[in-house]
Structure formats: C-alpha cells, structure tokens
Protein: UDP-galactopyranose mutase
Organism: Mucilaginibacter corticis
Amino acid sequence: MFDYLIVGAGFAGSVLAERLAAVEGKKVLLIDKRNHIGGNAYDFYDEAGILIHKYGPHIFHTNSAEVFNYLAKFTDWRNYQHKVLAHTHGQYVPIPINLTTINDLYGKNLDSSGVTDFFAAIKEDVQQVKTSEDVVVKAVGRELYETFFKGYTKKQWDLDPSELDASVASRVPTRTNKDDRYFTDTYQAMPLHGFTKMFEKMLSHPNIKLMLNTDYHEIMHEISFEKMIFTGPVDEYFDFCFGKLPYRSINFKFETLDQKTYQRTGTINYPNDYDFTRITEFKYLTGQKHKKTTVVYEFPKSDGDPYYPIPRPENNELYKKYQALASQSETIFVGRLATYKYYNMDQVVAQALSVFKKIKQENELNLDPERVASNSSLSNE
C-alpha cells in the first residue's frame, strides 16, 4: 500500500516524492516510462567520457532563494553564467541584444545613452501588444526583429512571431549596457556533478520506491495507493477527449570532435541560416576538462516527445477544457506538461514546493478534527 503514486520522475515528480517521503513520512511509488530519472534534465557521460544533456542544454538559474537552497540539499554548485552569441551577417554578436550587439552590427561606437536613442529612433509605435512580433518591434524596430527573431521563431515554433503569444518574446530582454549574460537571475549555477547525480540523491530516501520503463496505465489498477500525482501530459491523462494539445519537439544531433573546444561560448544561435536553431557545447556548461568536446545541434519539429507547449489563444482555450476536468479530479496535476505552461526548471521546482505545502496543510487539517470542524463551519457561513 502506497500513500502516493507519482507519475513522472522529472523535477515536479521528484521534488514531491522527496518532500512527501522526507517531511511527511509518506510511502511513495515514483514511476517513469523512460529508463532514467531526471526527466528532460537527465545527463550522462557519452562514449568519449563527456558529460552531456540528452534532451538539450539545461542551464539552471533562479531568483528564488527557496528553490536554490532546496536543491542545494542534494548537490554542490558550480557557478556558471551562460553566454549566447547569434551568428548573423557573417558576425557573432551577443544575444540578448545589448550595446555591443548594436555597435558590432552597425559599426558604431555608442554608449548606453546613445543606444537608448538609437532604439527610440527605430522602434515602432504599437498601441496594443498582443503577439511576439509586437513585443520586439515595439522595443527594437523592424530590422532587428527580422535579423534576430523572425527566422529563429519560425524555425523554433513553425509559426510567424505575429501568430505567437507575446509571452514568448517577452522572455528575451533588450539591454542598453554591455551585460552579455543570457540570464540576470540572482542565482546562476550548475549542479557540480550533473543533474542526474542531484536527482539520485533527491530520490535516495527509503520511503521512495522507483519503477522505470513503466507506463502508469500498466500498474495503476494493480497497485494500491491513496492518491495520484500526475506530471505527464494532461490531455493524455484524459485520453485526448477534447483533442491533442499542440507541442513542439526537437531532434538532437550530437557530435563529438577531436579538439578541446569547438565554439567561442556555450551556445550559438543561428536565427536565419541552416535548419537548426542553435549549437551548444557542453563543456562550457559543466566545466569539464577533456581533450575532446561534444556539441549538440537542435532541429525543431512538430512530432516527437512534447517539449514546448505552444502559447497561442486557441491552445490555451483547449487547455482550459482539460483544466476544468483536472479541477474535478482527485488526481493532483503538476509540471510543464500537466499544466501546459512554458516553465523553466526553477519554476517547476517552485510549483512542486507550493503544491507540497498545500498537501501538508490538508494533511494537518485531516489529523485535527477541531480544525476541520472550524474550517467547515467557516465555509458554511
């Protein structure tokens, strides 16, 4: 008899498994259809002995001390600030767009005040910001939009930015200084020995039983459990009764090279040339010393494992139908796939910690009849 059956051993499922086992003393069965833990953050050593991320680069960053300190229970950190270049017009320039980007691209020698005036002169007056195109042209104008965003977005989402919710482009800021870090979060670090080692420590509690290569359909009627927590696709849980929620997937092409480094920084974006969107070199991310190096090319596609929920109004409306079903279910839905949200890793951890707090409060209420009666009488007034 298990207290909880948790479906999915990524961040959402693993954090909840650990908290329920360690804090509440609950017996947890954690299952995953893949042959490994860690979800899309899973990393491993390839044949050359280089630590790589199987599902593309995962770079941890957060402004939440709670999230950072929680994960620090299971890993030491390596300080790392990610930097990205974009290859365009035969040059490699910083992205997000900053002062250096403009000076290099246009052969100028502007300071922060000058680049502010430059943006002011070229940006478009958009009254209502509804789409990703609106966000960018309002900030930096049409030319820079077409240089850095239009082609990249088309490859990544198979949609024009004018067809995508404003939230997508809003993730990428525009800077008037020389800050060339991709993220500006308070905490920027990588698990010292990799994500998988962190997950192994997180799931080492004796109250957690782990089953891999297991589809929940195969066992949920064979095993006794009190409550289910589901971190997989919400539409799959409800047998796609309203139709499939759209996602983008990625084909990853790995290449090991007999040289110490391949490129100038961790990731280089290719917004306009080639079929791939970017190339990432893992040794920058991990800090590993090795005579060889491994890179990954990313080719977005429409079919395959669901990675990115596509933020469009019609997709959100479809999700709301599943959300209504989920709200009536006794199952708890957590994570990017279960809530159809374009979450970063730290946001998933924060969501899982928040859900745990609610579960803990409910458990405390159930153990205290007077508090249950008090809450019940209040709710009836």
Notes: The first strand starts at residue 2 and ends at 7.
